[in-house]
Amino acid sequence: MTTTAPHPRPLVVAAPRRAGATPLRVVSPSAASAPSAATPAAAAVVAGSVPATSPSGSSVRITGPDVAGAREILTPEALAFLTELHHRFAGRRAELLSERHARRRRLANGHLPDFLPETKHIRDDRSWQVAPPAPGLLDRRVEITGPTDRKMTVNALNSGAKVWLADLEDANTPHLANVIEGQVNLRDAIRRTIDHTTPEGKRYELGEDLATIVVRPRGWHLLEKHLHVDGEPMVGALVDFGLYFFHNAAELIARGAGPYFYLPKLENHLEARLWHDVFAYAEEALGVEHGTVRATVLIETIMAAFEMEEILYELREYSAGLNAGRWDYLFSVIKKFRDSGPAYVLPDRADVTMAAPFMRAYTELLVRTCHKRGAHAIGGMSAFIPSKDPERNAEVEAKVRADKQREADAGFDGSWVAHPGMVGYVREVFDGVLGACPHQIWRTREDVHVTARQLLDVAATPGAVTERGVRTNVAVALRYLEAWLGGRGAVAIFGLMEDAATAEISRSQVWQWIHNATPLDDGRTVTHALVRQVLEEETAALLGEAGDDTARRARIAEATDLFTEVALGEEFPTFLTVPAYANRVE
């Protein structure tokens, strides 16, 4: 069966629609290598802190070390825009986070999630559709995700993928240098002025056929500790979105694309509505035509799985579809049902595949929901990376192809990889299903009927909890935390690309196994004592690798302390929000 793809509509800059309002000016930053002499000193980040004042009279305080590029990114105009975003939306964001905690308490008391009766009319109304695909987002058969360091930016754009998810979230760390460098690199990439030369003299520069940039800002739950408005820290999501939109929206439109985003960690449609209002305000304030922004939502929380249609509805003029964020989804299941008993205890991470009944229900519902509304459905990330061993590479290729064939056959319009070496495999798989058609939205999957019980059937997951699984989780989490403390948010560990989501699965499974006295396959029980023993052994191994590297040995010691707090303690914090560690990130 064939279909005619809709033609993407051109994007234009229109006059702002707000009566009597003066739009904020979109400035063209100077080149990254030469800070503008005209940029006021108050816009710079220097050691210690620098107060600045926005046009509204609010006091903006910037704290942190000297960071290259900060003068061009944190301009007075950009700070004024961030201040407006903060004043308009930070309060609602705080209320929505409070409601998250209330829902968590209800779950702990046995109130299971279900499809919302009050929004049934939205799900039953077959008339509404999302906006047609925007330029550069019509064909998304292979997407690559990764951090926004300079080398990765060039490699991702040159990778042959249709889309690059420029990750300011799970593959990043909240060091100020990363926050600023990511914005500098994105700005330069959009203007095609980016290149990179390694200390060894290897040069990286852009080719001709580049991936479309889609930026993932931080989730609603994270703050930006380096920027304060009237004494309050700014919201990390608004900082990431605001800086990228302010500096690049006009340039992107002029080049025939637009400001596109991946929205992480949403738990319900009201959080999607907040993003809708952020987009609408930003377009109006900067004189961008309404509906220019596009956003793909990651369905990576168990709560959002029950509100997929409502999320698409709230973002319908901005929507670019949904993505099956499989790793964070698993973490969300553990986090939300951590104290709900053995029925929600997962086996070894390696045993939890997309064939597990509750994961299959989630992905099938996602495809059904997206195609019902004319939206793209994007598959989950393959975390495999190439190795120097030909036999290992052949094994990895077979696994990646099988995973992506399953997604393509299920109706997904594309999928993710974490390494340029995997792009070709995924493209070939989707080429075999899509052919010349850019997507398969016409496959509405009317055969799919998913119930709330199926989404929650964690107990049917095959597999076991083993000592090897415990050791792997401890080893992965410890190695990732050591890298994270050093400023790296995406790390190759044991042949997989690990980020914050996969590391959270590893440590949260250990916590859950301990607190549920989970039996191992050999008859023993997962206990604090067993995990501490494994942790000591893994710490010793890492210290052996570090040798005389004093800085790394210090990070390993900190990582061990952090793992102890988030995996062996009574509480269940997210490691990114543990104050002792979040506050030390410069």
UniProtKB/TrEMBL annotation:
Its EC number is 2.3.3.9. CDD domains: malate_synt_A. It catalyses: glyoxylate + acetyl-CoA + H2O = (S)-malate + CoA + H(+). It is an enzyme of class 2 (transferase). Residues 60-121 form the Malate synthase N-terminal domain. Keywords: Glyoxylate bypass, Transferase, Tricarboxylic acid cycle. It comes from the Bacteria. Belongs to the malate synthase family. This is malate synthase.
